[in-house]
Structure formats: C-alpha cells, structure tokens
Amino acid sequence: MRKLIVSFLLINIVLFSFLSCQKEEVDISKPLSVEQINKHISDVLSETGEFVWDDATDHLVWSAIVQGDGTATIGYSEYLFFEEEMNEELVQEILDEKNAIIARILDIEQTENQNLTYEDIILDEDSAFTRFLVKIKLLETIKQIRDMQELRYLEPSYDKFEF
Q1: Residue 77 — left, alpha, or beta (φ > 0 → left; ψ -120 to 50 → alpha)?
Q2: Chain centroid to CA 92: how far?
Q3: What is the 3-state secondary structure (H, E, C) of the chain?
Q4: pTM, two decimal places
Q5: Domain segments of the chain: what residues?
C-alpha cells in the first residue's frame, strides 16, 4: 500500500511539473485582456527599453484595438503631411494610397456586416497630415492592411497602459 501511495505522489508531482512548465496557449480568435496586453507591453519595455506597435503581433495589435473601443490611427504615404508646394498629381497619389487602405478595410469589415459604410469606419480624417482614425473590428483586417505598402503605421487607440 505504501508503494502505491508513493507512486501516486510521484506521478502527481511529475504531472504537475509538466503542466506548469508548458507555455500558456493563446486563443487567437479572442482578444487578449487588458491585463495580458499590459503585461506584454511591460515585458517588452523591461527587455528593450521601448515598445513599438509595429513590432507587435497582429493578435496583440488587434487585441489593443478591441480593448481601446475598436479604434486605431492609420498613417499612410511616405509623406507625413500635405505641403502647399505639392503638385496635384502627387496629392492625388497620396489620396489614392489612403483610399486603397480604406477600401481594403471596408471590404474586409463588410464580411461581417454588409451594410457597413465609409462613414461607419472613418471616425476622423486629418486634412493636413497623412493619417486618419478608423474603427476596426476584425483580426483579419489587421493582418491584411499591415501588409499593404501604402501603410506607414497602424497604432491602436489604447490608453489602458500607464507608464
């Protein structure tokens, strides 16, 4: 009987050790919690001294967007702002880049809501700078637009991390 108890205890210790050493599996179909996002940001800051959304995974960016009321700022074009001396052709190229990003966002987001319109997703447009505020709901949107060459940056409107 004593051997049975000792064997049982050893098996439980080994099993507990094995389970506690496994990495936590993340369900990427669900957004991370605010606590998980903040822990990741904090870990990166501790390791590197800076946190940049461009270096974050699609899942982390999407999670921060979801936890930040679904909004993100998108920068487009190599030009940071519109200048008076830009000719009409260059201005049109810049606007075409913006429209390509918006069209892609709308196309992807409409897979979940076909009635979605431009006005539903664009929250604010800047007439001087090449950026806009957008409403995003789907992880697939993040995955696809982050690959677009027209995109300069995509940053969640995430204000739940305190430095």
Answers
A1: left
A2: 28
A3: CHHHHHHHHHHHHHHHHHHHHCCCCCCCCCCCCHHHHHHHHHHHHHHHCCCCHHHCCHHHHHHHHHHCCCEEEEEECCCCECCCCCCHHHHHHHHHHHHHHHHHHHHHHCCCCCCCCHHHHEEEECCCECEEEEECCCHHHHHHHCCCCCEEEEEECCCCCCC
A4: 0.80
A5: 25-156
In the block, residue with structure tokens 């991370």: 32
41, 52, 23, 64: CA torsion to nearest 10 = 70
pLDDT averages per 10-residue partition of the chain, 163 residues: 43 39 65 97 96 97 96 96 93 96 98 96 94 97 96 94 77
- Largest separation between any pair of C-alpha atoms in the chain: 90
